[in-house]
Amino acid sequence: MRRFRFSPALIQPPAFTLGDGLIILGIAAALYLGARLAFHSPAVVHGPEISLSPLALPWYTLLSVGRMTAAYFLSLLFSLVYGYAAARNRDARMVLMPLLDILQSVPILSFLPVVLLSLTAILPQSLAAELAAIVLIFTSQAWNMTFSFYQSMTTIPMELREAAAIFRLDAWARFKTLELPFAAIGLLWNSMMSWSGGWFFLMAAEIFRVGTRDFRLPGLGSYLQAAANEGDLRAVFAGLVTLILVIVLLDQFLWRPLTAWTDKFKVEMVEAERPPTSWFAHALSRSWLVDQFGQRVWNPFSEWVDDKLRQPLSGHIASPELAPDNRRSFLVAGVWVAFILLVLYGAYRAVEVLTTLPKDVWRQLGFGLLATCARVAVALIITLLWTVPVGVLIGTNRRLANVLQPIVQVIAAVPATALFPIVLLALLHLPGGLNIAAIVLMLMGTQWYLLFNVIAGASAIPQDLRLTTELLQLSRVDRWRTLILPALFPFIITGSITAGGGAWNASIVAEHVEFGGRTFSTSGIGAIIAQATGTGDYALLLAGTLALVLAVVAINRLFWQRLYRVAEERYRLD
Amino acid sequence: MTTTTIDGDVLLELRNVVKSYATGERQYVAVSDVSLTLRPGEFTCLLGPSGCGKSTLLRIITGLNRATSGTVLYRGQPVKGVNPHATIVFQTFALYPWLTVQDNVQVALKARGVESTVRVERALKLIDTVGLDGFESAYPRELSGGMRQKVGFARAMAVEPELLCLDEPFSALDVLSAEALRGELMELWLNKAIPTKAILMVTHNIEEAVLMADRIVVMSKDPGRILTEFKVTLRHPRNRKDTAFQAEVDKVYAAVAGKKLINVNGELPQRKLPHARLNALAGLLEKLALEDGRADLKKLGSALHFELDDLLPLVEAGELLGFLSPEDGALVLTQLGRTYAEASILARKELLAGRVLRMPLINWIYDTLQRDDTRSTARSYFLDQLEGEFGDRAEKQLDIAISWARHAELFAYNDNTGELYLEE
Q1: What are the structural domain ranges in chain A?
Q2: Which of A231, A506, A567, B366 has its CA 20 to 30 A from that of A156?
Q3: Do A434 and A522 meet the contact criterion of CB atoms below 8 Å apart?
Q4: Using N-to-C axis directions, what is the helix angle for B308-321 and B345-356, rounded to 10°?
């Protein structure tokens, strides 16, 4: 039985390799090139007018969902191509997999300023902001889907592959009958994760504004922000209801039916005790229209596609081995050399720019990192304090789980960034208000990952272990120490890794805000990056973003991955 | 040795086929210098213990894997890529779980460019032939193991192969389904109801081989090679209870399990430890003692519910430790073995410790530990040393050594510190 944790899977590379160094250089180079482009971005960017009329809501909703959809399909396409390449080509895998590992641990939001500024330099403003939002959502969605597809590709049982080869399936037929179906469940599961994560970034992108540069986009996020800004509680309420409605509708009419449908792609040869169900999928499966569509349109169409694709591929019988060929052509080698030279050049220029910064800035950055790190830690500790007991309660009590789980799922689905303006409205007048608000945003964005993980962990504790502990009449403390905490440990770690990443992300929008016509700022790396964006200090922007990326990657590598390994080796229950 | 002649009557010919895998600097030879000829009308069995390379050989024959060296000829032509005239019925069925029975069969036809109406017609007919009429729209998970393998056969026959390869097709089935399916296959084959010219079956089940094959090719492992060959001339349908049948089985059994490991000088020919659990060996010795110190290997296997694959490592271990010796398909308890079987638990430990220490691998570890001041050494040290000799099997060997030494209370392993240490 494949089990999914609510978190991206971790690859386990050696602590730090040459490839990692190259990738970090590559990121530095890419950031430099972005910042370089950004030199020409206009000093004043005008944002859209946001109407608070409820009549505008459907249109805004459509815009927001449209951005999400565009980004999602981009991510899907990317993950199929990237995962396929990584799985089937050994050379590509050597670079692609470490790259993926770093990319999925990098705080995505830290790229937003660079992407926005560089795009506004070359594109009309509204288009640039649209594209930046889509790119941002894409970067938040693609990695875990890609990783899932790659993993599926590499875990297809050998005999199924061999059957495909022996019955002469060509590459397309193999993809259609074996690879894609085999990957479907994992891909769907990760799509749902990505989609709900995407809301967080969409809302952040829709409300991004620093100084004279207003990068906001018309959409649900900016509607909520404008409403909170003006203290229009009725509009806030209308916006929230719309957002929740959209999330629930998508769940009922898209994700659940898909989950029920993909159940047939599981490899286990036993019927599930409680297969996923969906009333909508059930209704569709009995519909005459759908049946006719399948017979008259879909089947002929797919037959036609198969035929068209067979012609160019005929004779190429897919080899069962995953990486059959390891020949390198000169062309490929040339491209690699050119690419590496470009990376080195970019990295060199980046370093050059960085050296122009006064020494004082580095101290400031270090201090900012520490401040943000402290906030992340506080948010994580508060999260742990409440999610572990509550998660265990829900996870071990079936009746409670039945009542609470759907409610928690809906609440968790509301992106924290959408609520952030409302949090500001409530907290900003308190002393240290933004500091508290920043922590609250981190909390709201991350606690659910942990809660779901703890619930999953608690419900995975085998019944016999639980009964044994009861028979031994261990005290409450001993029970937690000998059974519950060790059993939860791997789940807490995987949850914390995702939660920590989310909290770092939140710092970009949380530490520097414009609200009610005033600017609020608190010390932290996020604030430094945001201010650099506003004032057009590109060297500082580059330094800040790079420092944040490096810090988070280092924390992941040195802290979380070690704990993760301990969890995998020592505390796994299966 | 068979002499190799090229005439129109040869379907498939292997000449000096070698398959080796390189792991780091080490080379692991899976198949060593195999020559084999298959002719039309023959039902051939490749028989041998697990790890003897028989499945690898099957994959080389069908073109799924490439031989490291040697020649593979099909109808006189070298096999390049997947052989279009051969198909495989897989041990684990290898059906696509998300396709119905009919679609699973049709997929093979579609890949060969058979037109859609013909496809449906042929698939339905084959499903009918294997007796799955009425299950066309069922998914594999709704079927029993035997029915799933019937789909596997239908799919294989759909492409009308000349050479049908069976990779332990009955070993994942329950006894009754397996027997029924064997009968049905033999009926199709003997009545020439299928256009198949030759069948090649891989198995480790001796009775199964004698029941079905015209020819049994016995393989042995380390490295995988052909040991000997039998012709089975019994008339079909064969009866397991026949004395002639039993005699044939005994003959093959003796060939597979009868070889001696220890040569005349009493030297151990190998440092490699067989993958056997010593408490299972104790059970085997007790059983032998009850049988007055001598028992037929085949009967012993069925009495203890051991497959040949489980039994052979035990026999090997027992022989290496000097507790028993194989003689023509039977096992004979040695004096030492008898003492062991009748001893108390404590005496057994002592006896075992002495014998286990004779294993070069264990002796070396024990020695190393004794020379260490702390009487403990990191597992990784031993692993590094062993990798030179055993390649990627080093870890398994070390695990077996630890498990044997634990039994004999010589040394043990602490997972927390990652160290092997001497038992006080």
Answers
A1: 13-267, 358-574
A2: A567
A3: yes
A4: 80
Measured CA distances, A270 to A20, A259, A267, B144, B205 (Å) = 42, 18, 9, 10, 27
- Chain B residues whose CB is inside 8 A of the A275 CB are none
* Contact A322/B at CB under 8 A: no
Q: What are phi and psi of A520, to 5 degrees?
A: -120, 140
Distance, CA of B408 to CA of B356 (rounded, Å): 7
DSSP H stretches of helix in B8-162: 54-61, 101-111, 116-129, 145-158
Residues on chain A touching B141 (C-beta within 8 angstroms): 268-271
The reply to whether residue B96 touches residue A173, judged by beta carbons under 8 angstroms, is: no
- From residue B323, alpha-carbon distances to B120, B219, B288, B315 in Å are 61, 26, 11, 9
Q: Using alpha carbons, select from B312, B306, B186, B294 the residue that is nearest to residue B253.
A: B312
Nearest CA in chain A to B95: A160
CA nearest B165 in A: which residue?
A166
C-alpha A175/C-alpha B96 separation (Å) is 13
Q: Which of A163, A271, A317 sits opposite B90 (nearest CB)?
A: A163
CATH 1.10.10.10 is right for the domain spanning B278-342: yes
- pLDDT of B89 reads 93
Identify all chain A residues contacting B59, using CB atoms and an 8 Å cutoff. 162
Q: What is the CATH code of the structural domain delimited by A13-267? A: 1.10.3720.10
Is A177 within 8 Å of chain B by CB?
Answer: yes
Q: What is the CATH number of domain B12-256?
A: 3.40.50.300
Alpha carbon distance A171, A309 (integer Å): 9
Question: Taking CB atoms and an 8 Å limit, are B159 and A267 in contact across chains?
Answer: no
Per residue in B131-172, pLDDT (tens digit) is: 899 999 999 988 988 899 999 999 999 888 999 999 999 988
Tokens of B129: 């032939």
**Which of A314 and A174 is assigned the larger pLDDT?**
A174
d(CA A30, CA A40): 17
ipTM: 0.77
Question: Check: CATH 2.60.120.1440 for A358-574?
Answer: no
The reply to whether A358-574 shares the fold of A13-267 is yes
Residue A191, classed as helix, strand or coil, is: helix
DSSP 3-state of B298: helix
Spatial separation of the C-alpha atoms in residues B392 and B27, rounded to whole Å? 10
Q: What is the spatial distance between Cα B129 and Cα A153, in angstroms, rounded to a whole number? A: 35
pLDDT digits (tens, 9 = 90+) for B311-345: 888 888 998 888 988 887 788 999 999 999 888 88
**Cα end-to-end span (Å), chain B:** 55
Q: Cβ atoms within 10 A of the Cβ of A491, count?
A: 26
- Give phi and psi for B150, each to the nearest 5: -65, -40
In chain A, what residues touch B98 (CB-CB under 8 Å)? 181, 264-265
Structure confidence by residue, pLDDT tens digits, A146-156: 888 988 888 88
Contacts of B178 (CB under 8 A, 6+ apart): B146, B170, B171
In this predicted model, what pLDDT tens digit does every residue of A473-485 receive, in sequence order? 888 888 888 888 8
Question: For A166, which of B82, B139, B141 is closest by C-beta distance?
Answer: B82
Which amino acid, B273? L
Give A8's pLDDT tier (boundaries 50, 70, 90): very low
